[in-house]
Amino acid sequence: MRKIAFAMVLILLAGCSLPRGAALQSEVIKAAEAEDAPFAVHPVTRDTIKTLNSWPRWHGYAGWIGRTRGPISPIIAAGDRIDLVIWDSSENSLFSSDGQKVVEMTNIQVSPSGSVFIPYIDELYISGQTPDGAREQIQTRIAQILPSAQVQLAYTAGQRSSVSLVGGVGSPGTVALPNRNFTVLNLISEGGGVSSSMRNPQVRLMRAAKTYRVSLSRLYADAALDTVLRGGDKVIVEQDERYFQALGAAGQENLIYFTKDRINALEAVSLIGGITDSRADPKGILILREYSADQLRRDGTGPSRTDVVFTIDLTSADGLFSARRFDVQPQDVVLVTESPITKVQTIFGLIGGAVGLANQAQRVTN
Length: 366
Description:
Elements: H1 2-15, H2 25-29, E1 40-43, H3 49-53, E2 81-87, E3 102-109, E4 115-118, E5 122-125, H4 131-143, E6 150-156, E7 162-167, E8 173-176, H5 184-190, E9 202-207, E10 210-215, H6 216-221, E11 234-238, E12 243-248, E13 255-257, E14 263-264, H7 265-271, E15 280-290, E16 307-312, H8 317-325, E17 327-328, E18 333-338, H9 340-365
Parallel strand pairs: 1-16, 7-11, 12-18
Antiparallel strand pairs: 2-3, 2-6, 4-5, 7-8, 9-10, 9-11, 12-13, 14-17, 15-16, 15-18
Helix pairs in contact: 1-9
């Protein structure tokens, strides 16, 4: 009976492959040995890390604009509005009548050409000036016909002198530029700040026909990146949508979203819940990446194939330190391969189980 049971196990093992939850490292990289291999394999080690880190990186997000200082006072632009108060103490004033000493002209809109119309002065170009500069210009022109007149000017920003905070904060809306040094962080503060629950918040700036992007953490860390806003800018705060995929004998098989700007391979293993002690091969951590055709290089400064497999050995100090210096990129696949020992253990388990059943059957027969 024992021989029959043992023979049946051998027949079953010969006739079918054992079920596994992940591939073996040797199975994945075997095709790379052929001359016309569809992908390339590169170990991540102390000797290769410098070269691999010089290869093209993912640049899906646009760049950012550094901070440049502007004038302290706002600048008048087309679409803005001004209110004038003209004080005139003369007896025969052109602006006032019936003994009035004050004339108010409200809600005067700056035309698309940048000028405003004022009675007895006609069109006056004030676009590009500060409110104080525009008041002095109007004062000078009125003084030519009314030497005793005094002018006060109040300025209200229009659409071209306002910025929009579209979303991602407590109170989105349109904000008039109080001065020409109003920055992105100033605007986010005006909107009530960003929720602490948002994943690695990204700040998107839409200016004219271009879009720029940077993480909020970088803005906090580097004051030189807190760019000054211009009229018409739109700012959106949104969570980071970059991700990599975890597969194989890992703590989880899922899409793993980036929690910060850069994630190295060792951090990626932690984010996926580590590796399964009973199944995983710590020598076989694979990172699968796809490059574009224009990133290919023949001189070693870039990949030679569009599909690349990076191999990491977490059982050596070299592999561990190299993994800390090697970044995972968006859309990468982190594959934890299965240990070949698992298959051997499964075979012996089946044999042991079959022998046990045979012994039990023999006892029953006896």
